[in-house]
Each structure stands twice: as structure tokens, then as C-alpha cells.
Amino acid sequence: MPRTWGGRGLSLRGWANRAAREYPARLAMTVFAAVITVIWLLLLTPWATASGRGASVVDALFTATSAVCVTGLVVQDTATYWSEFGHVVILVGIKVGGLGVMTLASLLGLAVSRRLGLTQKLLTASETKTERLGEVGALLRTIIITATSIELCISLLLFPRFLALGDQAGTAAWHALFYGVSSFNNAGFVPTEHGLLPFASDWFVLVPIALGVFIGSLGFPVILNVLTNRRRHKHWVRALSLHTKLTVTTSLALLVGGAILIGAMEWTNPATFGGQGFATKILSSIFASVMPRSGGFSSVPVDEMSQETWLVTDALMFVGGGSASTAGGIKVTTFAVMLLAILAEARGDADTEVFGRRIPRDTLRLSIAVVFMGATAVLVSCLALLRLTDLRLSEALFEVISAYATVGLSTGITATLPDGAKYVLCALMFVGRVGVISLLGALALRDRRRIVRFPEERPIIG
Amino acid sequence: MPRTWGGRGLSLRGWANRAAREYPARLAMTVFAAVITVIWLLLLTPWATASGRGASVVDALFTATSAVCVTGLVVQDTATYWSEFGHVVILVGIKVGGLGVMTLASLLGLAVSRRLGLTQKLLTASETKTERLGEVGALLRTIIITATSIELCISLLLFPRFLALGDQAGTAAWHALFYGVSSFNNAGFVPTEHGLLPFASDWFVLVPIALGVFIGSLGFPVILNVLTNRRRHKHWVRALSLHTKLTVTTSLALLVGGAILIGAMEWTNPATFGGQGFATKILSSIFASVMPRSGGFSSVPVDEMSQETWLVTDALMFVGGGSASTAGGIKVTTFAVMLLAILAEARGDADTEVFGRRIPRDTLRLSIAVVFMGATAVLVSCLALLRLTDLRLSEALFEVISAYATVGLSTGITATLPDGAKYVLCALMFVGRVGVISLLGALALRDRRRIVRFPEERPIIG
Ligand SMILES: [K+]
Ligand SMILES: [K+]
Q1: Are B191 and B179 in contact (CB under 8 A)?
Q2: Nearest to B70 by CA among B40, B36, B25
């Protein structure tokens, strides 16, 4: 087996490597469009729906896009509308989409870093030479094995609980597997009716799922960096890469800050946290703060939350998760780099520094591009949604940011949208998922330098 | 006279110069707080109100802050609630506030540029040595004379029209003067009942006011650069500074883009443009697109516009006008620099270039700081408003951005706000007006350099 893989891998590796290096944007878009099309066609078959009558073209497309882009927005209730075959198709879409994101992002990382002459650095973003992952084949294998292992761990934590709650062994195993894959891939799809609402006070269900979402949202480079460092370094925490340290600390800070804000605002809301006990309120706050990054599960009804909570969730969703993860948004490192630049500006430091490292200046321009294009996509889609529907801004904005950042939380309006609005959200999910990967690949590879430089002149800012 | 001025000016100049150099944030905040307090106390007197019963503490504070910060949000109808004395107080507040912004911004510019060893450059942001304005006294005089001249021109354009419409000579002159000052200072206060709604199709009223707002929103460095260049250069357009070119082109682009978008969205709305003739619709579109930058007048009822128009207006208001102008927002150059950086990134250029000039890299970090702090101020205030009222997000966001960017447009909710929300908006107007000036001053003066540099390490972005 290894030999066959190695043999086929050589040419596959060569092709993937060349494609990633020469037309990364087209590669990412083609792969995702192709996978979405296959899932779409499968979901259009009559066997995919529970009723056997077949889904509408737009509903099948929306569900396929939502699954492959690991978003989790649904126009039809996953548990009741789709058949068992439909559920398997959706789960395959999630698994392939999740792997696609992690793989393509890492591949592009490799291609970019190689071109910049930093071959080993990008994946680990570290100057230590401990992680050599030069080969595409090895990278793919590592991602598949690591991801699947973590998914299985989550599933194994959930399985006994579902059994204890009275499920049949087969059903319990299927639900545990589905939630394991759906959580680690930050997909947000739920195989059970009413999603996680019946489990709102069940620590044994919510904690594994929150853990899966959080670990998945850190991104593959972080997971790999932690795993290899633990094995190879005595002081493994200190030896972690800057990227890992930034991602983990920012994610934790946003988690705690979000939980405090959301908890404070929903504490006495009778429709959400109000009727819960103290411990459950804490659990609900943490769960509601993890999910915008970008798991998309909810343990209390989002539509009953206050507009303030929606706004805080909007902000958390827009920031999203870690780079090269299945999470969406502008990514926590982008957010962190901008914050650090502002701090350095306020202190009057010439360099932007953190954890004893200096952040390269060109990183900032890339951050601005990512944030600006994200904000533009959200604004334009929001205008389109307001134009096509009678929604209020708070609902439209929430839905749009959720689609862009592939979160999947919703105020409950998705199913009621007209077809035009569904297509807008499909496009936005695709852009949010594939756009940023393509963008980064395309940007990093077109590195033309000028010989003649213009004289410098400073406009007034602010 | 010149001698006396020169004699007193020496010490005044010395003090202003030193204050601006050594504690610019405190200087700006103190000046504004002091002026607001005086106007507030004057508005609290019974003579300031038409009824003679005196305004409430919070209403007087809100109106004083709105006038001095040249915002134009009102909790009481300006024309009917305040007396003639009240109107004069408000107009003085506008004039002093407007001059304060232009002067302080320019002073800080001088102090900063002197410190950076670019003395003559900042005001004109040009490498030509034609504009020497080293002296604070001369600068102040130039600003006062230029501003007052432009205001009088606008007033002279309006006066015959108001006469023709049947006003008494005294009333016509007063209204013309008020609109002249209010428009050039981007104040948005209206001395006539129902504001400009009765003039919705009157080109002779709306065009001078739009012109005053537009010129005022360009900022003093731009106006001065144009005026002096016209006198001194043969090819004066080409010789304009980068700052001037960037400000004018971005302002015009936003004006045209905004007019097309708003026009398209309101074209058939019976409550706004729907009932107007073709030419008036064009006028209304242009007027509605100039006003977010940040005049704050409206020729059609804002509360009847669609949510989409509100959202486009939100975006235009947030961008605001030119640096060192009476306009608010993040400023058009900040916006332009970020756009140019993204374009350069997309092209793979190492330098960010425009109009044959290279934009310094540290400009970008400053831009991020300005945008990020603006967005944070808006987000936090929006949360507060949603918490304190039953407003919808679309209304709260519009009101908050209008206050932050000192625009003064409103969906009509200002007067109905509870006192707590009024105080939040007061604070936001102050921050939007003084915060950015102080921020820039404070930032630019703390320029500590490190001798030990940390090693560089690149996190993954996006
Ligand atoms: K999701
Ligand atoms: K204004």
C-alpha cells in the first residue's frame, strides 16, 4: 500500500505542487466547485430526501454549498427533511470540504513559502527546523490522519452519552460520528431534530462538541505545531511558533471576552439563559461564545437572543477562527496583527512586536486586504438581502456574516428566504470559503518588483 | 493692529506651539471641553429658548456638543425651540468649533511635521517649498480669513434667493448667513422650520449649500494648497500636493458612486424621490450623496428612505471627509490609502504608489489605528444604544455613525431618546471630533526607538 501511494503520489504530488504554485486561485475554486457540484447532484436525487419526492434545485444547491463550505446554514431541517442517504451525502460533503480547506490552505502555504525562500517555515511559522513537511503527499496523509483521529476522539466521548440517553446503539454511533465530524470541521450541521436545544444543560454532550469546534478552529498548522513540539521539545510551550502562540491566545481571549459579554446580556432573558441554573448559564455563555468561531451550533434559540447579543456575535463571527482551519472569517491572526500594530503605533514603536518576535511589515498590508474584502463582501450581500426581502438589518446582517464566515448560526430566517436571496448566500459562502484561500495564493505569487521607485510623499491620515 | 497682534502673538504663538508640541491631546480636549461648557451654560439661560422657560440640562448639553463638534444632531427643533439669542449662541458655537478643528488639526500637523523634520511639508503635504506657513499666528489668520470668505460667498449666493422667495431682508440675510456658516463648517444645523424639505426641488438653495459642504469637507490643507498653487504655478493642477489630489479624487469618486447607489435605491420610493421630476431626482441623489461627508442636511425625509439607503449612507458617513476639515469620519485619505495598499498587494508591488508618488509604509499603520478605533467606538456605542432603548439596529447604527462622524443625519429618533442615550451620543460626538485629533497628536509625538530588535517571524494571515 505505501508503495502504491508513493508511486501514484509522485505524479499527484508533482501536479498538485505545480498547480498550487502556478494557478492557486483557479485550483482552489475548481476543486471546491467540483465537489459542490457532485454533492448537489447527489442531493437532487429522490433518495436523498425523506419524503422521496426530491429537493428543489435551489435547496439542494444551498445544502451542498453549506456542507462543502462547512457553513451549516440550512433551508430544510437536516434531521427530518433528508433521508439517511442524504445524511451520508452531507457528512461526506463536510468531510471532503473540511479536508479540502485544510489541504489547499496548507499546500498554498507550502508553495508560497517555497517561493519566498522560506520553505519549511510557513506551515509551522517557526524558525526551528524540526518540522520538515516538504512533500505534498506526506502533508495530505498527515492532515487526513490527524483530522480523522480527532474526529473519532470526539465521537468516542459522545457515544456513551447518547447510549445513556436511551438511543439505540446504531443511532447513538451514527449521531456521535456525525457530531464528531461536524464539530471538528466546524460544519454546524446537526443530525438530531431541534439540534442541540434538548441538550442545553448536558455538559457531556456540549463540552465534547465545543472542544471539537475549538480545536478545529485553531487550524492545522497550530495542531501540528503543538503535536510535534510536545514530542520533540522539553520546553515545548516556549518553543511553539509565533503563529501558534498568537492563534491560541487570541482565540482564548475572544472566547473569554465573548462569554462574559454574551452571558451578561442574556443572563435574565427568560427565552434563553433566564430559566437556567447558575452552572448551566455558565455553560451556555461559553458555548455561545465558542460557536461564532465558527462552529455554528446553538444550545439556546438564537432568534430569542437580544439584538445586542446578535451584534456581539456578528463581531465574533467576522473575526472567525485560525488560518488554514475549517473556520471562516478574517481569522484571529489577522485580527491580532492589526491590534498589535495599533498598540505599537500608540507606543511609538517602529517595530510591531509580540512574544519576543518582530512581525514583518508586509503582513499588515495583507491583513488590510483580507479585512477590507471581507467587509465589502458582507456589505454588498447585506444590501442585496435587504433589497430582496423585508428583513430587518439586524437579521440580514447576522445571516450574511454567518454565511461569509461559514458559521451557520441564524436568527431562523434562512428557510423563509426567496430563491434570489438563497443564491446570494450560496455565492457568499463560496467567496468566504474559497475567496480568501485564492486571494492569498494569487497575491503571494505575483511578486513583481519595480526598479524605478517614485519619490515618497505623505498624505495626512485621520 | 498688526504690531499689537504680532506682539501678543509672539507669546500666544509660543504657548500654542509648545502646548501643541508637548501635550497635544490635552490641548485639544481642553479647548473643546471649555468651548462646549460655555455654549452649554449660555443655552441653559431662559433667554436661549423661545418659550423663555429654559432648556433641560441634557438638552442644552446635547445641543452645545452638537454645535461645537459641528455635528447637527438635534433633540429640539432648532428653528422653533430656541430663541434668536439661542440661534446666535448656536451659530457662534459652530463657528468657534469649526475654526477650532481646522486650527488644532493644522497646529498639530505643524508640530508633528516640525518634529519629524519636515516643517513645511505637512500642511501642504508637498515637496515644493512654495507654501511657508511656519508661524502659528499667520496660520490662524489665514484659516480665519479663508473660512470666513468662503462662508460669506455661500451666504451671498443664498441671500437673493431667500429674498425672492418672499423673506424679509433681515430674515433672508440671517438665514443666508446661518446656512453659509452651517454648510461650510459641515454643521448641519438649520435655522428654518422643516429644514431644507421645503426646498427639495430648489437648485438655487440646494446647490450653494451642497457646494459649501463639499468645499468645507475637503479640509483646510487642500483649500490652501489649491489657492496658493493657482497663484504661483503655471501647471497648477499637476503641481498640487499628493494629499490634495488624493482628497479631491476620493471625495468625487465617493460622491458619484454614492449618488448612483442612493438614486437607484430611492428612485421609485413614493415618500422620497418617487414623486419628484427627473431633474429633481438627480439633484436629490447628488444632495443625499454629498451630505454624509459630513454636512448632515437633508432635502427629503431620511426616516422614509429604505434600509438599503441607510446602509449605504452609513458607509459614506463612516468614511467622512478630508483631514483637518470640519468633516468627521475616518477621512477620505485614510480610506484611499487602505484601498491603494490593497491594490498594490493585489498587483504584487512592493511599494504603494499613486499619482507618481510613493506612500510611506508607516502611514498604513496609522490608517489601521484610525479605522479600528472608529469601528470600536461605533460598535460599543451601538451596543449601549440598543441596551438603553427599543430601537432597531438599523436606526441605532445610523444614529451612532452619524454622531461619531459628526454628520447629523438622523432617522428621526434623536428627540425620543432617553437621557442615558443622549449622554452616550454626546460622548461619541466628542470622541469623534476631538478623539482623532488627540490620537494623532499623541501618537506622532511618542516616537521611541528600540536599539535591540527582535528576530522577525511571520504569522499566517487570512
Ligand atoms: K460552520
Ligand atoms: K455635520
Answers
A1: yes
A2: B36
Q: CA-CA distance, A183 to A176, in Å (whole number)?
A: 10
Ligand showing the shortest atom-to-Cα distance for residue B212:
2
* Chain Cα centroid distance, residue B231: 27
Domain that holds residue B182: 2-443
Q: Name the residue among B127, B359, B383 with its Cβ closest to that of A308.
A: B383
Q: Please report whether residue B453 resides in a domain.
A: no
Residue A56: count other Cβ atoms within 10 Å of its Cβ: 14
Ramachandran area for residue B233 (φ above 0: left; ψ -120 to 50: alpha; else beta): beta
A129 touches chain B (CB under 8 A): no
Nearest Cα residue in chain A from B437: A462
Query: CA-to-CA distance for A164 and A372, rounded, in angstroms?
Result: 48
Q: Is A141 exposed, middle or buried (0-12, 13-18, 19+ CB in 10 A)?
A: middle
Q: Is B440–A457 a contact, with Cβ atoms under 8 angstroms apart?
A: no
Share of chain B residues as helix, strand and coil, in percent rounded to the nearest 5? 70, 0, 30
Name the phi and psi angles at A134, rounded to 5. Answer: -60, -25
SS3 of residue B357 by DSSP: strand
Whether the CB-CB separation of A293 and A329 falls below 8 Å is answered with yes
Could you tell me the CA-to-CA distances from B10 to A293, A407, B4 in Å, in that order?
59, 62, 10
Scanning A181-210 for CB atoms below 8 A from B yields: none
Q: How many domains does chain B divide into?
A: 1
Measuring CA to CA, how many Å separate A66 from each of A69, A72, A95, A314, A408?
5, 6, 12, 19, 8
pLDDT by residue for chain B (462 residues), tens only, comes to 343 344 444 566 566 656 655 666 677 788 889 999 999 999 998 888 888 888 888 999 999 999 999 898 988 888 888 888 999 999 999 998 888 888 777 666 555 544 443 333 344 443 333 334 445 667 778 888 889 999 999 999 999 888 888 888 888 898 899 899 999 988 888 888 888 888 888 888 889 999 999 998 988 888 888 888 777 777 777 778 888 888 999 999 999 999 999 999 988 888 888 888 888 888 899 999 999 988 888 888 888 888 889 999 999 999 988 887 888 888 898 899 888 888 887 777 777 778 878 887 777 887 888 888 889 999 999 999 999 998 999 999 999 999 999 898 888 888 888 999 999 999 999 988 887 666 665 555 554 444 555 666 655 665
Cβ proximity of B433 and B406 under 8 Å: yes
Asked if residue A224 is part of any domain, the answer here is yes
Instruction: Give the best-scoring range by mean pLDDT among A16-20, A77-81, A417-421.
Output: A417-421
Question: What letter does residue B458 receive in the DSSP assignment?
Answer: -
Q: Quick check: is B457 in a domain?
A: no
Q: Are B35 and B370 in contact (CB under 8 A)?
A: no
Residue B460 within a domain:
no
Cell numbers for B118, please give them.
519636515
Could you report how far apart the first and last alpha carbons of chain B are, in Å?
Answer: 62
**Residue B346 touches partner A, C-beta closer than 8 Å:** yes
Q: Could you tell me which chain A residue has the CA closest to the CA of B390?
A: A307
Q: Are A216 and A325 a contacting pair, CB within 8 Å? A: yes
Contact B127, B141 (CB under 8 A): no
Whole-angstrom distance, CA of residue B370 vs CA of residue B361: 15
Model confidence at A236, pLDDT cuts 50, 70, 90, reads confident
Find the B407 Cα to ligand 2 centroid distance in Å: 4
CA distance A49 to A51: 5
Cα separation of B396 and A392, whole Å?
12
